Amino acid sequence: MNKELQAVKNFDFLARSFAHMQASGQQVDLQAVTGNMNSEQKAWFYERFNHYCLEAPRANELEH
């Protein structure tokens, strides 16, 4: 269980980081990022990535 929780935290960190990169104008290849993930992990990752993409512009405004 603890190992699964750590994996979820890692995927959430990755999703947030790549969403921030995309919002900053960098190219993000999500297929390369999720290439080794199983279908359940990919679905979860894409859900979190999309969530952070919606938040990223607001977060960028707060940073500047």
TrEMBL record:
The gene is glgS. This is Glycogen synthesis protein glgS. It comes from the Bacteria. Pfam families: GlgS.
